[in-house]
């Protein structure tokens, strides 16, 4: 069971992410509230009715490999057909390639629903989005025309081939070779691992985007190029030709997302896999980063989605399960466990973390839309910088907190949570990959520090802090317990984040080990302060509109207060982790052999 | 691979838990350092060589049920024979029933090793210990003579039968009936679920300890009695008689600890299961609590054990896996990931949490020994009160932190961590039950607040705080970075815990919902402050002895400092969660239907 939280989603889109402003951007004139509502309603139906029921099935009957052929979980193929025919792969892609050309702000809740309903299934469109993004960024017009409409139609799907056994986080170690054939094509040789939906039977062709080295390419990341290697070669008329020399030699046996096949792909074992260069030689990593920003944001939405799903399941159980009398003696009989304070604390933690991460992600999506569509270049650049700052936070923080949320989801179920048939454990297992793939949390945190904070001397980070300060000022104009609490903890959080930014900028050259030892706490601190800022903004809206819908806005007020007291209150501890320790005395005090 | 951390264990036993003092207690005269060392060495051998290699096997080939018969994982039966023949079931049990009569302080590291090597296997002895404890507490001499030596010899094993489908945390809802037969025996009827090692083929008989109601017993927890229901009836000469009417109708399909069969037991479907009352009628819960204190402490050791195991595995991988150049540019080539600051932060978090939880548990075990053996009654009572205060902390905190430690263990492995063959994921799955069974963390926290803090007006809690203050004073006499840092954060933690104790004691009657809404944060706060206190004590010892063994004591100093800055620093956030929110405005502000 999954019911998309449409009212919450629309609240965030409208009140926090500025949907109406987005609808004033060129090309988005039809993408206002009405469109958003209609699109979300349809998405909710598909996800709730078709994809959510297949989630458990995928866990019990994972994708299966036999003789190089991967068969998806029963039901997935038909569901993917419905997904594709509904146009869902194209929501945010350009109309000229048969996409729907809608704002990322509208695509994002669709992405959330897709992931909440079925994380394994959602990965196939997620990777296909990445391939589309790469082609649109760096492909020739012919490449775009050949591949993009097919990918958007869901007739073909896409993959990203980065990792090799010796090259995980460190792409400098990529060894896959691409040899020019003289006719403009290349022959690709090598082994790629951890390729999500790298082989399957849900589409007629698979477009593998592959990082490889050309002969004489420079060492390290500056010698990596991007190639497209289709599973079946494509004839000039767009029809499918010969089977290419890329083969799935096995799929992994994983902790979670079992329906999503994680392939080992062998390129060129039978003479060479035909591939075509995308963009310029040796600029592969640069293109990959563009598509990775999109993919990282999308993985952040996986965190939000699985958190929402785990929350809904836990609430359902807590309302049904009757156990123990109330602690205040207000009833003689056992009550539903949702009445017990600690269950309430767990559910409120799950809820407030999910809401905060959703709000931060949707706000980021709106910045992305402005960055792409605003007529003024300076405005575009400003929003692009904010979006790029937020991407590692959305990816890192939403996925880390999904571990806590799904773990609490198991805990709410008590002993039943540990029994696989209950279903809560699947979210706990599935979520565990999210802070790892598309760049571990440490990789996100290094990006947040290196490219996003230090490079501009903390300018973007501090501009966000200035906005937070404005919200703190607005909170000061309401004398209620919730606003007082939020003001107090948001101020403390603001102070901690400001101190952390200063520390990072001041010390990164002199003591890089100390700064990077605090990178993940820095990312988490940014997450709770910026997420808390969204909760504060929601609180202010709710204060104003409370009388229109007391239950809905009352819940927003209580949830914001809970977040302030139970989550934002962690800011000082994170600050301590970041600024206290010097590299060689703190985290790096021990020699490796003392471990 | 598991290497018991013998040096660390002996350090804690000797320097923090006062092994030499324990060896002055009556009956423990031979249980000094030499004995401890010999026992630990032998235990390490059995656990490292026999049980640890079976851990993965148990995950891949769980216990299997067929027609009421449960077959343990291949190898377990033989391993259990070795365990029993080595006398390991009897380490802490009385010599008069053929136990070894050693202090709990020596039994505890053995318990840790057992759990670190094989959590599923360790559960069988753990539950058998519980049965022995119950019999020693409330059994007749004949019952003790009949069962205890057999249980200690590992010829028979024991179980605890509390849970029923409608009665989990709430034992007031137990419905299993026991009807007197006129000959002193009873016939037991009912269904028990979640019975660990409730059926298996590793021993000749199973002694089920069962909570049930006699006819006309009072409602609720005051009408529950404790019975022993053997799988095979026992003849007067101790030989086995008829099969009793208790049958395993199924075992659960679980997230983890798969080798340990979790049975649904049906009592009395074929005329009634013969059972015998243990102790007095209607006092079952009281006896159960005595044995639960032991079992809860043991589950806390499961948390320590699985944390240590996950830590060792992560360290091994981090030393081998080569990826990326150092952030400070100190090498041109990729290095082992243990050189990267964030990996170091993760490993140090795992290490410091494991060491702190181990130290707190061993110190608690020493209090238990004094409480049982000291010649002076007042001293016994004082130590018993401290032990009882610490049991829910050891259980709740060690198991909650094992979730964090095992999760970090997966994260250190990156993508490989998500692949089941790697093994890191098993610890993550296995650990998830620990904060649930033998009383969820919320149940532990309620116990810590209700019975252990409020009942004596916070007296024991404050006596521990006074001891912490002494350590803070001692830290002030060393002007080094580690001691300054530890002093600072231990003082802050002391202040937060003091504030929380005052809040709990002052408000529990007036606003019980508010107090219990902070119960789990209160338990965690007690854990980090009291665990941090042990780290501080270790730091002081290390300062003094540093020159004797610079690597070992240097690591103690660095780990203590890390704990202070990265873990103890969370105290203020926990305090905020406890003392800020009023019941109806904070955690309980929403109606159930607003969720």
Q: Can you walk me through this structure?
A:
The structure is a homodimer of 595-residue chains. The first copy, chain A, contains 19 helices and twelve strands. Chain A is of the alpha+beta class. Among the domains of chain A are: 138-282, Butyryl-CoA Dehydrogenase, subunit A, domain 2 (Beta Barrel), CATH 2.40.110; 446-595, no CATH class. In chain A, a hairpin with a 2-residue loop joins strand 1 and strand 2. At the A-B interface, helix 9, helix 10, helix 11, helix 12 and helix 13 of A face helix 9, helix 10, helix 11, helix 12 and helix 13 of B.
Question: What kind of sheet is the major sheet of chain A?
Answer: 8 strands, mixed
Number of strands of chain A: 12
- Tally of separate helices of chain A: 19
For this structure, the quaternary state is: homodimer
If you average the pLDDT of chain A, what whole number results? Answer: 96
The most extensive contact between chains is: A-B, 103 and 102 residues
**DSSP helix fraction of chain A:** 55-70%
| Strand residues, percent of chain A | 5-15%
Question: What sort of overall outline of chain A do the alpha carbons produce when their principal axes are compared?
Answer: globular
Low-confidence stretches of chain A: none
Give the C-alpha Rg of chain A.
24 Å
Global structural class of chain A: alpha+beta
Terminal Cα separation of chain A, in Å? Answer: 46 Å
EC number (chains A, B): 1.3.99.41
Catalytic activity (chains A, B): 3-(methylsulfanyl)propanoyl-CoA + oxidized [electron-transfer flavoprotein] + H(+) = 3-(methylsulfanyl)acryloyl-CoA + reduced [electron-transfer flavoprotein]
Cofactor (chains A, B): FAD
Protein name (chains A, B): 3-methylmercaptopropionyl-CoA dehydrogenase
């Amino acid at each position: 069971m999954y019911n998309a939280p449409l009212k919450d989603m629309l609240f965030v889109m409208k009140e926090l992410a500025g949907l109406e402003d987005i609808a004033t951007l060129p090309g988005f004139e039809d993408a206002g509230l009405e469109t958003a509502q209609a699109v979300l309603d349809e998405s909710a139906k598909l996800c709730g009715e078709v994809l959510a029921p297949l989630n458990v099935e995928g866990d019990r009957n994972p994708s299966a490999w036999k003789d190089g052929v991967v068969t998806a979980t029963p039901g997935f193929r038909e569901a993917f057909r419905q997904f594709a025919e509904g146009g869902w792969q194209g929501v945010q892609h350009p109309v000229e390639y048969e996409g729907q050309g809608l704002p990322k702000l509208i695509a994002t809740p669709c992405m959330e629903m897709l992931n909440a309903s079925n994380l394994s299934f959602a990965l196939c469109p997620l990777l296909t989005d990445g391939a589309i993004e790469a082609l649109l960024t760096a492909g020739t017009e012919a490449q775009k025309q050949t591949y993009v409409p097919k990918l958007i139609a869901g007739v073909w799907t896409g993959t990203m081939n980065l990792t090799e056994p010796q090259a995980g986080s460190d792409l400098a170690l990529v060894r896959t070779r691409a040899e020019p054939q003289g006719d403009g094509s290349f022959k690709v040789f090598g082994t790629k691992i951890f390729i999500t939906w790298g082989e399957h039977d849900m589409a007629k062709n698979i477009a593998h985007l592959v990082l490889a080295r050309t002969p004489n390419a420079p060492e390290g990341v500056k010698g990596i190029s991007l190639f497209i290697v289709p599973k079946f070669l494509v004839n000039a008329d767009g029809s499918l030709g010969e089977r290419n020399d890329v083969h799935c030699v096995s799929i992994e046996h994983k902790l979670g997302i079992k329906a999503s096949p994680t392939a080992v792909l062998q390129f060129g074992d039978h003479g060479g896999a035909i591939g075509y260069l995308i963009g310029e030689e040796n600029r592969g990593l640069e293109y990959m980063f563009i598509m990775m920003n999109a993919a990282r944001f999308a993985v952040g939405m996986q965190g939000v989605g699985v958190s929402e799903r785990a929350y809904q399941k836990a609430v359902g159980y807590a309302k049904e399960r009757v156990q123990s009398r109330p602690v205040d003696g207000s009833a003689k009989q056992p009550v539903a466990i949702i009445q017990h304070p600690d269950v309430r604390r767990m559910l409120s933690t799950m809820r407030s973390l999910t809401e905060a991460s959703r709000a931060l992600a949707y706000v980021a999506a709106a910045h992305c839309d402005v960055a792409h569509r605003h007529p003024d270049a300076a405005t575009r650049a400003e929003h692009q910088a904010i979006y790029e700052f937020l991407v590692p936070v959305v990816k890192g923080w939403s996925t880390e907190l999904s571990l806590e949320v799904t773990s609490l989801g198991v805990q709410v179920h008590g002993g039943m949570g540990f029994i696989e048939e209950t279903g809560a454990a699947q979210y706990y297992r599935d979520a565990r990959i999210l802070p790892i793939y598309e760049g571990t949390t440490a990789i996100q945190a290094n990006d947040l520090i290196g490219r996003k904070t230090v490079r501009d001397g903390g300018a973007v980070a501090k501009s966000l802090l200035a906005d937070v300060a404005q919200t703190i000022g607005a909170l000061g104009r309401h004398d209620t317990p919730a606003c007082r609490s939020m003001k107090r903890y948001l101020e403390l959080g603001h102070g901690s984040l400001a101190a952390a930014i200063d520390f990072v900028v001041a010390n990164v050259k002199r003591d890089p080990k100390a700064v990077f030892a605090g990178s993940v706490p820095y990312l988490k601190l940014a997450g709770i302060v910026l997420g808390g800022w969204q909760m504060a903004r929601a609180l202010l809206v709710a204060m104003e509109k409370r009388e229109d819908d007391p239950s809905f806005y009352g819940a927003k007020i209580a949830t914001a207060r809970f977040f302030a007291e139970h989550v934002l209150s962690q800011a000082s501890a994170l600050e301590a982790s970041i600024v206290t320790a010097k590299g060689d005395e703190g985290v790096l005090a021990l020699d490796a052999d003392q471990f």
